[in-house]
């Protein structure tokens, strides 16, 4: 029978203790993983309120905080075959303003000014699949929904 030295046991214990954990050398994190930097509009997902927010399709499901008097602009890029419906607003804290640019077929754009404190939900949707253009083509009934909650402070 082979004799195991204390040094080999200690090395094995250290290796096992390190399994399943990663470290980039930051000892101040106490083993917690930091979230990846956000590429979303300022004021999204619990950050400080911003005076302006630019929302895209990738912001689906996020919460945005905008200061009173600020602006929220929405640009959802669609196609003629898969168009976005106009953006709907539920709540009174935002007032529609002129978006100031021409949209392409299938896109949905909107611009709002934050007029009072409160919470508003912006929503839109579009088909998941293009409509068939000829008999016998496959179609689907799926809908892609988009929504963002806007808090005005």
List keywords for this structure.
mainly beta; 153 residues; Immunoglobulin-like; 7 strands; seven-stranded mixed beta sheet
Radius of gyration: 25 Å
Q: What structural class do helix, strand and pairing data support?
A: mainly beta
Give a short account of the largest sheet: 7 strands, mixed
Going by CATH, the architecture of one domain would be Sandwich
CATH topology of one domain: Immunoglobulin-like
Q: SSE order in H/E notation?
A: HEEEEEEE
Overall shape:
elongated
Oligomer: single chain
Average pLDDT works out at: 77
Uncertain spans, ≥5 residues at pLDDT below 50? 4-40
Helix tally equals 1
Kindly report how far apart the N and C termini lie: 74 Å
So what's the CATH class of one domain? Mainly Beta
How many strand units?
A: 7
Proportion of β residues?
Answer: 35-45%
Helix coverage percent = under 10%
């Amino acid at each position: 029978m082979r004799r195991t030295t204390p040094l080999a046991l200690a090395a094995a214990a250290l290796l096992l203790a390190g399994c399943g954990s990663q470290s980039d050398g930051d000892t101040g994190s106490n083993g917690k993983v930091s979230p990846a930097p956000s590429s979303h509009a300022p004021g999204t997902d619990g950050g400080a309120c911003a005076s302006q927010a630019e929302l895209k399709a990738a912001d689906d499901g996020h919460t945005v905080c905008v200061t009173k008097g600020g602006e929220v602009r929405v640009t959802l890029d669609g196609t003629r075959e898969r168009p976005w419906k106009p953006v709907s607003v539920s709540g009174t804290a935002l007032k529609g303003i002129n978006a100031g640019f021409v949209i392409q077929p299938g896109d949905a754009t909107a611009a709002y000014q934050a007029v009072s404190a409160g919470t508003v939900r912006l929503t839109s949707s579009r088909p998941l699949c293009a409509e068939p253009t000829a008999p016998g083509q496959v179609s689907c009934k799926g809908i892609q929904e988009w929504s963002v909650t806007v808090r005005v402070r």
